[in-house]
Design brief:
single chain, alpha+beta, elongated, binds biotin
C-alpha cells in the first residue's frame, strides 16, 4: 500500500477494484496490483466488512465482491451514477440537523452546481412554511442539491415544479399509471398520500441568483411507526404503498439523472415541453381548490399550468395565474 493512502482510502480503492472485476481475485493479484502486502489487504477487507459490504474472502482462493449495502454514502451514490454533474460531488452524513443547512454552508464557500448533500437522518429536517420534516434514520432519502442557474430569480419558482416532475417520473417507475401524483407545486403523492416533499431555497443578490438549494425528502422504507400520529393518515412511504422495501441508492441515482435532464430542458425552454405530462401527473386538474399565499387566498378550479410552472385557475369564467401558494382541495 502506498504510504500516502490512509486505510480508509485504500479500502475505498480496493472496493472499487474488486467491485468492477466481479470475479474471485487472488491475494497475489491484489498485492501485485496495489503494490501492497497481505496484511494491508486484510486490514482493508476487515474495514469493508464493518461498512457492511458483502464479500467472499477465502484465504486459499482470494476475494470476491458480492453486494453493497443500501447506505447513502458518497461511495455508493457516485458508483455508476449516470449524470454529468448532479451528485458527482457528494457529501454524505450519518446525522445532520438539515441537509439544506449544510448545502447552504457549502454553497456560500463556493461549491459547484450539482454538489449534493445527503444524510441518513436529520434532527431538524425543515419542511415548507416552517414545518418540520420528520426524518427517521436509515429509512428515507434526505438530500439537497446545489444549483447555480444563470437566469433571473423570477424563473426560480419553476425549479420546484421541475423537481416535482422529475420526482414524479422517477417514482412513477415503481407504480402503475395514475398511482403517483404531483400536488402542485412540490408534493408527491402515492395513492393520495404524501410520500415526498421539496423545499427549494433561493439566495439572490441584485436580481442575480447566487444559488438555489433543492431539498428533497422521500419516505422510502418507513413503516407505520416511523410517522408521528398527526401524519399517520396523510403520509405514506414507498414501502407501505408497494408492500416491499425499496433500495434507496438506485432510487436516488435515477432521480438525479431525471432531474439533470429536466433542468437542462428547463434552462432552455422552461416547462414548455413538459406541460402535458405535468397536467397528467397533477392531482389538482379539474378539482375545486383554495390557494393561499402571503396575499390571501383564492378559490377556483385547477385547469393546467403555464411554462413558468404557475397554476392556472378558473374562477367565474376567468383564468387566473397563480405563481406560488399552498393548495387545499375542496370537498365537492
Ligand atoms: C415539505 O414538503 O414541506 C418539504 C420537505 C422537504 C424536506 C427535505 S429533506 C432534505 C432537505 N433538508 C431539509 O431540512 N428539508 C429538505
Amino acid at each position: 500500500m502506498s504510504k500516502l493512502l490512509t486505510l480508509h482510502e485504500f479500502a475505498d480503492r480496493l472496493l472499487l477494484y474488486i467491485r468492477r472485476r466481479r470475479t474471485m481475485l487472488t491475494f497475489d493479484e491484489l498485492t501485485r496490483h496495489f503494490n501492497s502486502d497481505r496484511d494491508s489487504i486484510n486490514a482493508a477487507l476487515a474495514l469493508l466488512a464493518t461498512w457492511d459490504y458483502r464479500l467472499v474472502v477465502r484465504s486459499s482462493k482470494g476475494v470476491k465482491f458480492v453486494d453493497a449495502p443500501d447506505y447513502l454514502t458518497s461511495t455508493e451514490i457516485t458508483y455508476g451514477l449516470k449524470t454529468k454533474s448532479f451528485g458527482q460531488r457528494c457529501y454524505s452524513y450519518r446525522t445532520v440537523k438539515s441537509t439544506n443547512d449544510i448545502a447552504a454552508q457549502l454553497a456560500e464557500s463556493g461549491a459547484a452546481e450539482g454538489t449534493l448533500v445527503t444524510a441518513e437522518e436529520q434532527t431538524r429536517g425543515r419542511g415548507r412554511l416552517g414545518r418540520v420534516w420528520y426524518s427517521a434514520p436509515g429509512t428515507g432519502i434526505y438530500a439537497t442539491l446545489i444549483l447555480r442557474p444563470k437566469f433571473s430569480p423570477d424563473r426560480a419558482p419553476g425549479l420546484s415544479v421541475m423537481t416535482s416532475l422529475a420526482l414524479a417520473r422517477t417514482l412513477g417507475r415503481y407504480f402503475a399509471a395514475g398511482e403517483v401524483q404531483l400536488k402542485w407545486p412540490n408534493d408527491i403523492l402515492v395513492h393520495g398520500r404524501k410520500v415526498s416533499g421539496i423545499l427549494t431555497e433561493l439566495v439572490a443578490e441584485r436580481n442575480k441568483i447566487s444559488y438555489v438549494l433543492v431539498g428533497v425528502g422521500i419516505n422510502v422504507n418507513h413503516g407505520a411507526g416511523h410517522f408521528p400520529t398527526e401524519l399517520k393518515q396523510t403520509a405514506t412511504s414507498l414501502r407501505r404503498a408497494l408492500k416491499h422495501k425499496v433500495k434507496r441508492v438506485p432510487l436516488l441515482q435515477s432521480f438525479l439523472v431525471n432531474l439533470e435532464k429536466e433542468y437542462e430542458t428547463y434552462k432552455k425552454s422552461n416547462l414548455t415541453k413538459s406541460l402535458s405530462l405535468l397536467k397528467r401527473y397533477s392531482s389538482l386538474t379539474g378539482r375545486r381548490i383554495e390557494v393561499s399565499n402571503g396575499d390571501g387566498s383564492i378559490q377556483g378550479t385547477a385547469i393546467e399550468f403555464d411554462a413558468s410552472g404557475a397554476l392556472i385557475l378558473e374562477r367565474r369564467g376567468q383564468r387566473l395565474r397563480i405563481a406560488a401558494g399552498e393548495v387545499t382541495v375542496k370537498k365537492t
